[in-house]
Amino acid sequence: MKDNIINICLETDTAPQVIEERGKDWISYGTENWANLYPQFLIDLYYNSSTQAAIINATAEMVAAENLVIENVEDRNLEARVKLQHFMDRANSNESLHEVIKKIAFDFKLQGAFALNIVWSKDRTQIAGIYHIPVEKLRAEKPNKMGRVEAYYISSDWANTRTNKPHRVPVFNPNDRTCANQIMYSGLYSPNMNVYHTPDYTASNNWALVDQKVAEYHLSNISNGFAGSYFISFANGVPTAEERRQIEQSIAQKFTGEKAAGRFVLTFSDDRTRTPEIVPISMSDADKQYLALQELLTQNILTGHRVTSPMLMGIKNDTGLGSNVDELNAAANFYLNTVVKPYQDHIVKELRKIFKVNDMDMPVNFVQLKPITLEFTSEDLKAVMTETEIRDELGLAPLDVEVREDFSKVANIDGEPVFDTIEEAVARANTLGCSGYHEHKYEGRTVYMACKDHNQVTDLKKECNCKLSDDNYTELKNFINEFGEDIPEDWELLDEENVKDEHEDFNFEAELNKLVEGKLELASTGTARPNARSTQDGVNDSYNDYYKVRYVYTKDTALSQRGETRDFCRLMMNAKKVYRKEDILQMKDKPVNKGWGPKGNSATYSIWLYKGGGNCHHFWKRQVYKTSLRNAKADINNNQIISDAKAISEGFTLKRNSALVAKAPKTMKNNGFLEPR
């Protein structure tokens, strides 16, 4: 009976203990019941708690994502790009880099850390390969006098170190390549831990242990039973001990076991005049008690893992998937940005240390998995979405890649456009009143300008006095004068970054003020802000705006200075103004840069995406300011508010702008033109 009673000590210490034991070169890492075996304890919980296992499996898949890719691959150094791509295809003799990442992502979530075996080439100039090391096989060497761990010990079984003697391997150090094998051990910060990293769900391990014990109890109850379900009494005498054993065994084989319901209690008596009596034994409401316990432990395990929706982890609840698509999307975005992304960023940071050694360091990112929702059927989507939109939603490239507006001219030289073709230059000459064309060299290639020689075209420009005085110039000047803003002295710059993947309909300023509004304590009078001209000025109900978001036209200093020679770019840069996003978007309907529209035939195009046109060296930068709002008495964490707004922007449910908005056209494919030039 003792074996069938569930016995859970809720005071069990499941937090790890780090102990320096005398006579051992490594630091023990375990609990009272799992001495120096804390990683094995986590594995045991994983295998015995279905809820814990579901969360860890789902999170590891999200962290590993679909793949790891090079950012802006076409803009990178060809030799370094080829080297990195080869490394990503073959991280070691048997695996690709993504296959290794899938393993370390699993360890990262399960153990709170991951480990890699770094193998140097024979000449020690390059890293020849990296291999995953299961964290449970690793223990840290005692730190040196400076508190640094110089090596780790590896054993296939830390429960039996006599048979499986630990082997010392130095820590990864690019400055000391003496040993061909080194270990990189890394993880996120863990409080009160100096040499090891703990998982983020440690606080919920007691509940996972309850889940394990409850499952074991139910299994034992089904197999053996802890109480009789029926009382069978034979009133025809008392058989011998051997006969009683045979009768009991015969009935047990027929009526009990995992596929039979319950067990029985057997008795005998001397009265031959009475038939056997079978009396059911009523059970308590234990099933209801365990159902309530199951719901409680599931919720606590989910909370420990920071999961806001169990459906996200593949754990079904009573609400149903179909009616909770919004909840699932919101939960997915929250979990991605607060849990998954920090894991991914840390993995990338550690991998780039390896890339740097091999002279192939460049930005990489994960191709994220997308949550699957059942709000619409495939037929519904096909009815309202184009083929390109559907492919984009699935993460596939468009079949007809035409994502950039074309511009007929290549650039301006001395204020006059040059072209790739002779025909375009001759057509331009006809409009100026000259004929023919002449050649120029631009960025190492031949381009064509109107008129037979350069003096002729410059003389014509002087005679007509049309430079900086045509409609193009006037329209742009009017725009700058009307919508360009100077930053007030009482605004404080909090954050600035290149605009990337920000949807043109996403109101960054309003989202910031929405997040901070509930944290402000304002007097009833408030501070009026009459300059709030539109919905994108981001004010709260009392027109007390705490944050302002503006966009500034900025030059990519990594490129040459040629971008400054273009009239549009020169005026925008010299004005030193900032703009609201909605005003920038309105420029697509204004002829502020004539001649740079599609095929050179249109006076308008998207300034938000393509700035000054093909070969332009500029991009938009977002700036976040804090205003001098009076009566705001709360202590506001500006960095947290801005980070939250960025996370919301990344999870914006509408189709986002392409990354072109954060690029100078010069760095786009074909330098911002449709066709190669």
What does this molecule look like?
The chain is an alpha+beta fold and 677 residues long. The chain has 4 domains: 15-196, no CATH class; 207-283, no CATH class; 409-464, no CATH class; 471-672, no CATH class. Helix content is 34%, strand content 16%. It contains 18 helices and 21 strands. It has helices at 38-48, 50-64, 78-89, 97-111, 205-223, 241-255, 286-304, 325-357, 378-384, 387-393, 422-432, 454-464, 471-483, 508-517, 567-575, 581-586, 607-610, 638-650, and strands at residues 17-20, 27-30, 67-70, 113-120, 127-133, 138-140, 151-154, 167-170, 181-187, 230-234, 264-268, 277-280, 364-367, 409-413, 416-419, 437-442, 445-450, 492-498, 547-555, 578-579, 618-626. The chain has a 4-stranded antiparallel sheet with strand order 14-15-17-16. A 4-stranded antiparallel sheet has the order 18-21-19-20. Strands 5-4-9 form a 3-stranded antiparallel sheet. Strand 16 and strand 17 (445-450) form a beta hairpin. Helix 1 packs across helix 5 (205-223), helix 2 crosses helix 8 and helix 13 (471-483) runs parallel beside helix 15 (567-575). It is elongated. It starts with 16 loop residues before the first strand and ends in a 27-residue tail after the last helix.
